[in-house]
Amino acid sequence: MTIRPTLFAAAALAAVAGAAAAQAPCPPLPPPSGPVVERWPADAGNLRATIAGAAPGTTILLHDGFYDMSGGDATHRLVFSTPGLTLRSASGDREAVVLDGGYVTGELVSIQASDTTIADLTLARAYYHPIHASGPGVPIQGILIHNVHVVDPGEQAVKVNPVGAGTVDSSTLECSHLELTDVGRPFIRNSCYTGGLDAHQATGWLVRRNRVEGFWCDEGLSEHGIHMWRQCVDSVVEENLVLDCARGIGFGLGPGADGHTGGVIRNNFVAAGDPGLFGSAAGFDSGIALWGAEGAAASHNTVASSQAPSASSMEWRFISTSVSLANNLVTDRIWDRGGAATTATNSEYAPLALFADVAAGDLHLVDPGSAPVDAGTVLDPGDADLDFDAQPRSDGAPDIGADEIGQPVFADGFESGTTSFWSTTVP
Ligand SMILES: [Ca+2]
Ligand SMILES: [Ca+2]
Which of 72, 80, 113, 190 is the most buried (most CB within 10 A)? Predict the structure, then answer.
């Protein structure tokens, strides 16, 4: 199947329009500080050489347009093996620079060096992983993936796994949109071998403020929208919207080698409302799954599905699991499938009418008089001081779920208010 660039761009813009109501904006990256190399769409065939020859600290600025990256074969990719390189758009508009693999190029971006930044652009239709980070036999760190749109990957949208001892640690995926669309879904292979972020043996990742959506297949069970497992440590997953994914957020997938240590999942919206997802073979499996998660916390998350999940809204499983669940608000069950848990003021079987728009992923509370408001347990300072909107929980009576209600709501569905987590004032 061939998608002409103009049609593809139109589809991407439509997707963005749908995303406009999602999350408060993230502040832009600062301007480049080192050497800058500018490139245009006609340079698409030479980008590999440009990146391979760039001095440490160089920023490759891409001007707006459609970059046809489908030349070559499944072994082709942009390899970042020099520390401190940045690939970003000149305009800062992630929808205006599209690198399209046409399901020919295996990976679009291969990160193999510390302090690599990928920002402000769209990566479409890689045959495998559009972004793949692996240390080159030794650990790397300081990767920043910021404000990218990854659309219709052939496998997982963002893959992090070690090569030998080459783990990828202390890195960030933020403010990005990872999605599998109805157009791309038929291209998924191997019994739904896809997902949003899939990280193995990664320590200290921060995954925040992303919109992850559409990861499901007619047959087979997709990996989670955000999945940290296989000995990941101390992941922080916060303020994300995971919409219409068969599995929302996962720590671990089993005991031992498949497990996760430490970490926190907080202030996320996990929503499911797509009839196609519910009608698929696997359905909506679970919102948040802690399988072999040792010492993890899940606090102040909201999981809402317009139909019942196949398994649960939230669950923990396997003997090695030890989790703390507090102030989570869900529309179905929280399931004890084995392991140890401490729980405080979680709310199951919440009515859908509590939320602004489940199908759109807007799980803000609508009624300041509703049951979750002011009904939560006060957590230790630093555990979940801010809500989904990065607004402080300052009234001494936390609302159950990811949203602390009580401030004016933006026209686009978000609340205005105070100085945020980002040290910027939300308008
Ligand atoms: Ca409150
Ligand atoms: Ca709020």
Answer: 80
Total Cβ atoms within 10 A of residue 164: 10
Tell me, in angstroms, the distance from the centre of ligand 2 to residue 356's CA.
12
Residue-wise pLDDT tens for the chain (427 aa)?
333 343 344 344 333 333 333 465 688 999 999 999 999 999 999 999 999 999 999 999 999 999 999 987 777 899 999 999 999 999 999 999 999 999 999 999 999 999 999 999 999 999 999 999 999 999 999 999 999 999 999 999 999 999 999 999 999 999 999 999 999 999 999 999 999 999 999 999 999 999 999 999 999 999 999 999 999 999 999 999 999 999 999 999 999 999 999 999 999 999 999 999 999 999 999 999 999 999 999 999 999 999 999 999 999 999 999 999 999 999 999 999 999 999 999 999 999 999 999 999 999 999 999 999 999 999 999 999 989 988 889 899 999 999 999 765 444 444 443 333 332 323 2
Distance 394 CA to ligand 1 centre (A): 8
Q: How far is CA 94 from the centre of its chain?
A: 16
Ligand nearest to the Cα of 369, by number: 1
Report which bound ligand comes closest to the CA of 395. 1
User: Which chain residues have CB less than 5 Å from ligand 2, an ion?
Assistant: 387, 389, 391, 403-404, 415
For residue 363, report the distance from its CA to the centre of ligand 2, in Å. Answer: 10
Q: Residue 392 C-alpha to ligand 1 middle, in angstroms?
A: 10
Question: What is the distance in A from the centroid of ligand 1 to the CA of 253?
Answer: 34
Q: Please report which helix (H) or strand (E) contains residue 52, including its range.
A: helix 47-52
d(CA 280, CA 215): 12
The helix (H) or strand (E) run that includes residue 18 is helix 5-19
CA of 379 to the centre of ligand 1 (A): 13
**C-alpha 192 – ligand 1 centre gap (Å):** 41
The rounded Å distance from CA 395 to ligand 1 centre is 6
* Under 8 Å between Cβ of 152 and 130: no
- CATH class, domain 5-357, is mainly beta
For residues 140 and 167, give the distance between their C-alpha atoms in angstroms, rounded to a whole number.
6
Alpha-helical regions (H) of 223-267: none
